[in-house]
Design a protein that fits this description.
alpha/beta; Rossmann fold; 15% strand; globular
C-alpha cells in the first residue's frame, strides 16, 4: 500500500522528508500543490475546489487506493477527498479536522489574507523583510529552523496562490461540514498546541465521525517536523489497525 502525503501553507512536498525517512519500508509519495514550489498549471485558478480536483486527479494515477495523509490545508483537501472520492483511498489522516465543523472560524492571519488589499499589503511587507527575519517569524510560529529556511525565500506565485485559496474558502467550514462518518477509516493526528486549529472542535468532529485520535500533548502545528519519529509511529499503528481489503 502506498502512502501519499499532502502539505499545507506555506509549504511544499519536502515538509514530509523527515517523517517519510522514518518509514523506509512504506512506499510513499509527497505531493507539492500547484503554486507551492512548482508553477500553476495553465488555467488553474487556485481555489479550494480546484485543489480538490487536482488532488483527485493525482490519486487517480495510482493502481490501488492509497493511505492519504494531510497537514494544514493539505488536511482539508484530504478530508474532502475522503467524503467525495472515497474509492481513491484506503485510509485518511489529517491534523485539521475542524475544517469539517460548521462552528469553526478562521485564525486571525487567515482572516487578514481573506481581506482584499490588506492581504496584498501583508504579503508585500513580508517580502520586504530580509530572509533571516522571515525565518524568525516562521520559527516563532513553531516551524523548525531548517525547514523555515527552505520556505522563507520570496515567491510571488505562492503568495498569490495563498490569497486566492483563502479567499475561496471564507465559508468552507459550513460548506464542507461533516455529520456522518466517511466510508474509509480516519485518524485525527495533531499537536495540542496548534495555534491555527481548535483541538476542542477537532475532538468533537472525531467523536462524531468515529475516528481514531492521536494528540501530541507537547507539540504544535508542525508536529511532523518537531517529532517525525513519533508521527511516523502513530501513522504506522493506525495503518496496521485497518484490515487489509
Amino acid at each position: 500500500m502506498t502512502a501519499v502525503f499532502v502539505h499545507g501553507v506555506p509549504e511544499d512536498a519536502h515538509l514530509w522528508d523527515d517523517l517519510r525517512a522514518e518509514l523506509p519500508d512504506v512506499p510513499s509519495v509527497a505531493l507539492s500543490l500547484p503554486g507551492f514550489g512548482r508553477p500553476l498549471p495553465e488555467g488553474f485558478d487556485a481555489t479550494k475546489e480546484a485543489y480538490v480536483a487536482w488532488l483527485a486527479a493525482e490519486l487517480e494515477r495510482f493502481d490501488e487506493p492509497v493511505d492519504l495523509v494531510g497537514h494544514d490545508w493539505g488536511g482539508g483537501l484530504v478530508g474532502r477527498i475522503a467524503f467525495t472520492r472515497p474509492e481513491l483511498i484506503r485510509t485518511w489522516a489529517i491534523d485539521t479536522l475542524p475544517f469539517f465543523h460548521g462552528g469553526s472560524r478562521w485564525h486571525d492571519l487567515a482572516q487578514k489574507w481573506q481581506t482584499p488589499k490588506l492581504g496584498e499589503r501583508m504579503m508585500e511587507a513580508q517580502d520586504a523583510m530580509d530572509e533571516d527575519a522571515r525565518v524568525a517569524v516562521l520559527v516563532e510560529a513553531g516551524m523548525t529552523e531548517p525547514y523555515a529556511r527552505r520556505v522563507a525565500p520570496v515567491d510571488p506565485v505562492r503568495n498569490s496562490s495563498i490569497l486566492t485559496l483563502y479567499r475561496s474558502a471564507t465559508e468552507v467550514f459550513k460548506e464542507w461540514e461533516a455529520t456522518a462518518p466517511a466510508e474509509r477509516p480516519g485518524l485525527y493526528i495533531t499537536g495540542a498546541h496548534d495555534r491555527y486549529s481548535s483541538l476542542r472542535l477537532g475532538r468533537e468532529v472525531a467523536t462524531r465521525l468515529g475516528m481514531q485520535v492521536v494528540v501530541f500533548e507537547d507539540l504544535g502545528h508542525w508536529w511532523l517536523l518537531q517529532a517525525p519519529a513519533r508521527g511516523a509511529a502513530a501513522l504506522r499503528a493506525f495503518w496496521a489497525s485497518v484490515p487489509a481489503s
